[in-house]
Specification:
heterodimer, A: 376 residues, mainly alpha, ABC transporter involved in vitamin B12 uptake, BtuC, globular, B: 246 residues, alpha/beta, Rossmann fold, six-stranded mixed β-sheet, four-stranded antiparallel β-sheet, 8 helices, 12 strands
């Protein structure tokens, strides 16, 4: 058969197949209902696991279901939850930020130094003498600024210089911690100005966002400020990821960075923004933590980067990029801390906690693999 | 008047001459097959037209006007759309999200802008309908067949008022039936008056849809003739160098 006749036969074949319905028979074409979509998500199953643990614990340990314990657990996981929220966009782009724990330590020290009663020997006199430089809002602003600067350095090195996120943020983990130790003179800072410190501490240590005092009303519930801030941020990030062009671009970068670039997504800028948000969330967690504990320690946040990453991953974020969500980060951090709390109450040696958290991370990734296989 | 005219286009990367003095013209509603062996300069030529890199010499004219592209976005603004070899799709997003990637439809109240999901699903559905593709806007690209992916990539070019669509190996690595689907998509683009440049290694595809074929060999244009006046044997000879010039 000559090439030409073969060509003609291919043409015929093509025409014949055009006439046949073109739908791919392998593909399931029915639209999924909301319920089907819901049970397909990891966050849903984590929520179920969390509810079961809570029910079992409430029956076994009367202390578990008390208002005080609820107040404490929700506050304790809020710090990690806020960081996990910030980590989420970074993970969705396919990156990782290992420096968030150290950023917490750095920001805590920056806030502590601003609020400190004694003058700082290496700062100029005008700084030490002025009062506005030691106000609670200055501590807040400089703390957040420190977070933004670290995020900018991470983001620019990763997006514009093109270094791997793992390496850059691993370096930053060491750098930010070292700066925190040096700035603090390796001391714990707790001797704060009595006029400004209480105002700062209320941010992280208060409850009900001060609304009950504002309205002079007695609220029927008691929720810590960190937890309420976490809730607000979860809702905000959820809306941003789903409803804005920026959120869409974050997912696109994680799905196929090259494609995102070719279609005109400002990949580099969006990546820098993701790392800045991540560091900023760590800074906020540090500010809340300093407010709650009333002291600034340069070791604050050590190994928290792992908890933040674990929270996002347990909730369903994919470390390969392209998947993740605000609620996932929220529920992931909740699960980790409820398990910790439950183990403590059940009298399990606290040294075992790491084993459980680690197992859950691996389990989460295994589940993700299984779901991924079924999808293909 | 030719919608696209290339005159004496040259491009070199260091000492390597990728394109030497290439002239190509393209009419409205014409499908041009661009053929050549690996390294003959096909992809380089497409990238020059798409604005990925400026040529070292020569002129690009769109509708008779000289154009200088420094970035792909500038070429897109002039009505040049590209369907890339690897399709440039995000597997984790829906078909509609991929079609509108980088050009999302938004609603706004004052400075607050948010995605208009409904409008994007609707418009994407219409585009797939125009292309007579079974692709559904809400489906994830991950779950799609090669032909449906092509439909998504091609639908993207229909968003703007594209005059020229460049397709880099759209039929590589998909099944025979899906190839037929893609060739159909190309015919629909042609019927709506769009000029298509099809880069392909597959002789049957080029002879099935193209009106004209241009053959490149080592950066030089060695043939430019109507498909009816040529044959696969001749083109094969031109690609390999067995036939010198036609």
């Amino acid at each position: 058969m000559s090439l030409e006749t073969r060509l003609r036969s291919v043409g015929k074949e093509a025409r014949r197949t055009q006439a046949a319905p073109v739908g791919d028979p392998v593909l399931d074409t029915h639209e999924k209902t909301i319920f089907e979509k819901l049970i397909g998500t990891q966050a849903f199953w984590v929520t179920m696991a969390l509810l079961i643990i809570c029910v079992v614990m409430s029956i076994r340990e009367p202390v578990f279901a008390t208002e005080d314990n609820f107040f404490n657990i929700t506050r304790n996981f809020a710090f990690i939850g806020v960081m996990a929220l910030g980590m989420t966009p970074v993970i969705i782009t396919g990156g990782i930020d290992l420096s968030v724990g150290s950023v917490m330590g750095l920001v805590a020290i920056v806030c502590g130094l601003v609020l400190l009663k004694q003058p700082i020997p290496w700062m100029p006199d005008w700084w030490n003498d002025a009062t506005w430089t030691h106000s609670w809002w200055m501590a807040l602003a400089l703390g957040l600024l420190a977070g933004v600067i670290v995020g900018l350095i991470n983001g620019v090195l990763i997006a514009y210089v093109g270094l791997p996120p793992f390496v850059v943020t691993l370096g930053m983990l060491s750098i930010a911690r070292a700066v925190a130790v040096v700035l603090s003179g390796n001391r714990m800072l707790y001797d704060f100005r009595p006029d400004q410190a209480p105002k700062f501490k209320i941010i992280g240590g208060g409850q009900n966002l001060g609304l009950d005092q504002l309205f002079g009303a007695d609220f029927p519930f008691r929720l810590s400020n960190p937890f309420l801030i976490l809730v607000v941020l979860t809702i905000t990030l959820g809306i941003v990821l789903r409803m804005t062009g920026w959120g869409r671009h974050i997912f696109a970068i994680g799905g196929n960075e090259q494609a995102a670039n070719l279609t005109g997504v400002p990949v580099k800028r969006v990546k820098v923004q993701a790392y800045v948000i991540c560091s900023l969330s760590a800074a906020l967690a540090a500010i809340l933590s300093v407010g709650w504990s009333g002291s600034a320690n340069n070791s604050l946040g050590q190994s928290y980067e792992l908890l933040a990453i674990a929270s996002a991953v347990i909730g369903g974020a994919n470390l390969m990029g392209g998947e993740g969500g605000a609620y996932a980060a929220f529920i992931g951090s909740a699960l980790i801390f409820v398990i910790r709390n439950s183990l403590l109450m059940a009298g399990v040696d606290s040294n075992w906690q790491g084993l459980f958290v680690g197992s859950f991370i691996i389990l989460a990734v295994v589940l993700e693999r299984i779901r991924g296989k079924r999808r293909e | 008047m030719a919608v696209l005219e290339l005159q004496g286009i040259s491009k070199h990367f260091g000492a390597i001459q990728a394109l030497i003095d290439v002239d190509v013209g393209l009419e409205r509603g014409e499908v041009l097959g661009l053929m050549g062996d690996n390294g003959a300069g096909k992809s380089t030529l497409v990238k020059v037209i798409a604005g990925n890199f400026p040529p070292n010499g020569g002129e690009i004219r769109i509708d008779g006007e000289v154009a200088h592209f420094h970035r792909p976005v500038e070429a897109r603004e002039k009505g040049i759309e590209v369907v890339y070899q690897d399709l440039a799709l995000c597997n984790n997003l829906t078909a509609a999200a991929n079609v509108f990637l980088g050009r999302e439809i938004k609603r706004s109240i004052g400075p607050i802008r948010w995605l208009n999901h409904g409008a994007m699903y609707k418009r994407a559905g219409e585009l797939f309908g125009e292309l007579k593709s079974e692709t559904r806007p809400r489906h994830l690209v991950r779950q799609m067949s090669g032909g449906q992916r092509q439909a998504v990539a091609i639908a993207r070019t229909r968003l703007s008022n594209a005059k020229i669509v460049l397709m880099d190996e759209p039929t590589a690595a998909i099944s025979v039936r899906q190839v037929a689907e893609v060739l159909d998509l190309i015919r629909r683009l042609r019927d709506s008056g769009i000029a298509v440049v099809l880069i392909s290694h597959r002789m049957p595809d080029v002879f099935a849809v193209c009106d004209r074929v241009v053959v490149l060999r080592r950066g030089r244009k060695v043939a430019d003739k109507a498909i009816k006046a040529s044959s696969p044997e001749e083109v094969t000879g031109l690609i390999t160098g067995a036939i010198h010039v036609a």
